[in-house]
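Box S2. Input/output pair 1.
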Amino acid sequence: MILRKIKTSAWNLLNRTGLGGSVQLYMGGALKQYGWFRSYHTKQSVDLNGDPLPWYTYPFILFLKPRIKPEFVVFEYGSGNSTRWYAAQVHHITAVEHDTEWIKLISPKLPSNAKVLDKPLGDAYVKAVQSTGEHYNIIIVDGRNRVKCANFAVDYLTADGVLILDNSEREWYSKAKEYLKERGFRRLDFIGMAPIVGIETCTSVFYRDGNCLGI
């Protein structure tokens, strides 16, 4: 009874201040639909059903999902639920990780078309994309040493390939953005909330004409 009175009083206060409608919109709208509340409470990047999601902004996930094709080959700096999400939709994904303990946790959850390379931080990590001997439709830079990784990995995209840089609003990633621009890539920024956290961030995709996402 006491708890109910507290909730009622809080709701009345929000309505008097004009915030009730906004809170109701978020509680019953997009954030609930996207599964943000579940991701926040579980501290896992998942959707409403508990299925894995990349830890990107929701606007970018919605943009990317219908453009993924089953023949794509993907490389990822950093691994996690994003690796699982891509694996369910593409031909093959390779990720690189420097944290051996994390690799032990994530590897058993991956299907046969996904693998994680164990590379220490430094040149071995940055150049992991080269070690596979492949070129990729999508390269995701979402791990450590992001400027060096983005600048190196761009040469291992297919002719129609795109590069994704997460948390691209961070000032210390500006050199990567400048370098990719010099290499002839244009950029689309997707700003918004992401799973787990309650802050606004940005995921950017770098692309050229005739790219595999049809931008």
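Box S3. Input/output pair 2.
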Amino acid sequence: MRIVIAEDDALLREGLALLLRAEGLDVVATAGDPDAFLEAVDAQRPDVAIVDVRMPPTHTDEGIVAAVEARRRHPDLAVLVLSAYVEQAFATSLLARGSARLGYLLKERVGRVEEFLVALHRVAEGGTAIDPEVVAQLLTRSRPDERLRRLTPRERDVLALMAEGLGNAAIAERLVVSDGAVHKHIRSIFAKLDLAPTDRTDRRVAAVLHYLEGGATRRS
């Protein structure tokens, strides 16, 4: 796996590079600003870019803008975004743009090395990885959606794990149920959220967006 890291904090940038190299991963370049990041992506053609949300010069959304531009230039590039805080606007638009090969983690997750590596590999392999804390915090800030009230507690559990990027098999393992039971719950979720199958809409992504924006309460 070839990786480019974009992070303006030199200590975190080099520490992350050392961590990944110690795990046998190939960090082909690191960058401290968006322009250097885009140059590295163009030159190195990595499999994955790990990008900080806030970068110079204004430390607002330069990292996100650069990640979007990198994906425009290289559509197969997987992007794992790191943020010190939950950024609701980006977390929801992340999924709205399509969830394949995309991840959003809080920086504190890097310290939990095994979890971080699982998320990195999931994104590199074409999946989605949304930090559980991001999901939990977004729910407390969201607007109510009456359709979510139709869901049973177990269906909300399934949808919460979908929001973290887990596939059916991983959800079944987490909830200690069969794959068939998870599939049945997901079909019920689609029906209760009025998500009919179409060629234009990924119902799994649409259901997660309803969840993140709709104020469902997650079971403890």
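Caption for Box S3: The longest strand covers residues 26-31. The beta strands are 2-6, 26-31, 48-52, 78-83, 102-106, 128-130.
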